[in-house]
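Troubleshooting: if your tokenizer reports a length mismatch, compare your output against this known-good record of 334 residues.
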Amino acid sequence: MNQIVQPIEFARLRLYHPRVFEKRRNPTAKPKSRWLLLLLTVGLIVTTHACRKSPAPATSQPAKFIRPTVASLVPAASDIILHIGGERHLVAISNYDDHRQAFATLPRVGDYQTTDWERITAIKPDVMIRQFSADRVPAGLQERADALGIKLLNLQIEKLDDISRAYSVLGEAIGQASSAMNAWSAVQAHLDAIRLSQQGRPRVRSLILIDPEATAVIGPDTFLDELLTIAGGENVARDLKQRYPSIDREMLRKLDPDAIVQLLPGASAQVVESAREMWKTLGHLQAVKHGRVTILTEPYTLLPASRVANVAALLDDAIHMDQASSSGDSTHQP
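Known-good structure output:
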């Protein structure tokens, strides 16, 4: 039996580093005409002369950043800081943060595997956020941060309780504990509403996959497993006893879920089409046979942060597609 095995570490990195897109460049502006350029030049000369004759009184400009400043090398943490209103505390982000406007001018200084100490030394943030398992903390990390006077926060985000705790820790770190509590309460209320909507519904035997080849699976004790439960699903991979197990086609046949959700954040149309063609070759599976395979490409689906309730809503739609149409803006079915 040929096995297609994907390392567990790859699955962890997929969760830590959701796929991001290059932002499209804006079209080049049309050249200004000569008369407009001349007019602007004359205006500049007149303005400069006026400024020399009667200089305007100096005004204090608000600082771009406010302390404590934060270098977040964890995409989930960066997202949470924005959600609680801490944008002006961020001075650097991860190589794998997305390309939203709030991050446009921030330097990218590392990730799960790398640290750009030269840039961090130049920026010298008050706080640096990392995410490492206890047995994977790089040697000398704490000592180097201490030498630069940087407070090191090492988050562990695997489950919903961890996300809640991250809101609390990050809120305290930037002096916005109350805003953090309110922000997470809003997320929790959304999750509670989805959970309540499942009352009286039978559980749907479901499987979540996070790679195009359908070999990397979401197992128990993960935030996605919890979101699936909130959405009315029963994770058929729980008995595999691993958070991010890898499976081959034989195991997929044995699990034989009634609904399959494939999370491919930011996947291109070609990747999605390839996945759809793959599922067509697996028509013996109940989910494929009954048209209950959904591919979600929303960029936040693997991010344990502010939009977990949105992910739960997408999962709800996906596994109950026979009862309600999907609301995901990039949901595809084979």
